[in-house]
User: Fold this.
Amino acid sequence: MRGGYRIVKPNEEKSPDLKKKKVSDTRTEQVYIVRSQHINGYGRLFGGMLMQWMDELAGIVARRHAGMTVTTASVDTLNFEAPAYQDDMVVLIGRITHVGTSSMEVRIDAYVEDNEGMRRPINRAYFVLVAIAEDGKPVPVPGLIVENESERYEWMSGEKRYKLRKTRRKEGY
Ligand SMILES: CC(C)(COP(=O)(O)OP(=O)(O)OC[C@H]1O[C@@H](n2cnc3c(N)ncnc32)[C@H](O)[C@@H]1OP(=O)(O)O)[C@@H](O)C(=O)NCCC(=O)NCCS
Assistant:
């Protein structure tokens, strides 16, 4: 026990030589202003633009965790919860939730922040990125140290999604 929370050290047996990292080591925040070129025909932020921003941030978080080149393998539960409009300040927060052997799951939350600093959620998604060597082949990533109940909950949910993705991939549905 440390600080009242149980510290779990997953992935230890899979990549014992790699220095494990904390979720907080790679948590990254990115902010954009929605400009006219980001707007679709309905006057809202174009969904593809937001997805690009989210994918880029997921890549940065995963690269910081892996310390090497990464590539996006899949995206799931990407939900557009609310629109954003021109001049809105869009805040993206990315953090690692789970790691496998060579794959990392990164959760991205997107918000619109008003002038009082209040954040309204507009999107959330889980990206899976894989660390790759120069030949494009997957390579092991460091384990993840989870330090509190919320990170532990995310890890356990991520473990379920990791297994589900494996099954879906194997069975092709
Ligand atoms: C991602 C990629 C490197 C995986 O290569 P692969 O030979 O299929 O590798 P493996 O089957 O050994 O899987 C490696 C890991 O990736 C995970 N993975 C591979 N495809 C996945 C998918 N579609 N969804 C979720 N996880 C996936 C595996 O579960 C495995 O995880 P683990 O090592 O943590 O257990 C390869 O499919 C690729 O290069 N894809 C194109 C990626 C790309 O170009 N992205 C940019 C978007 S255009």
